[in-house]
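Input record (Table S2, row 174):
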Amino acid sequence: MEDLEILKIGLSDILELQHIATETFVETFSHKNTADNMSLYLDNNLSLDILSAEINTINSEFYFALKGNEIVGYMKLNFGSAQIELKGINSIELERIYVLKKYQRNQIGQQLLDKAIDIASQKQLEFIWLGVWEENWSAINFYTKNNFHEFDRHLFLLGEDRQTDIMMKKNLRL
Ligand SMILES: CC(C)(COP(=O)(O)OP(=O)(O)OC[C@H]1O[C@@H](n2cnc3c(N)ncnc32)[C@H](O)[C@@H]1OP(=O)(O)O)[C@@H](O)C(=O)NCCC(=O)NCCS
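Output record (coenzyme A complex):
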């Protein structure tokens, strides 16, 4: 398989970011959610205005996974006060990690996660955490394989649907 490149992106990449973020979100969640809730989520969370504000947020970083010129996945990391919860200085939030369906199970998610852990280790952070929908079994398996453990459960709004996210974390100092 062609080598994977993982690159930090900026505002000039926003159209490609919106494209990969929308495509992967729809691929992952449309079969288990109503069209109305999916549209609401996309409008409220993946508009160009919202994404540009997120790219410009100090302490948030986006990365593309590239195979040649093709964007096959992406992730979003938050540090310090940019974390949605647990805003401590010793943690990093993996807010989003997505790989296009046709490329899944090829270690691309693994390489993105390894990159996030490398970045966190360089900053000497203590743990990495995330929230995952309780019905997203493939992602839960992926995190469990990587030694993440549940530590809490929180509400997540997909459009108007109140869903439960499992909060998971991995200690980086073990
Ligand atoms: C979750 C996700 C990022 C994993 O990325 P990936 O490239 O498909 O996974 P990898 O090939 O790197 O998997 C690494 C290991 O995780 C585990 N794993 C990954 N996907 C799995 C699945 N569907 N079922 C069971 N275990 C899985 C396996 O142990 C795998 O190793 P193996 O293939 O050698 O057995 C990817 O499937 C994805 O984008 N899913 C849709 C979006 C999503 O749910 N994101 C998370 C939101 S919280």
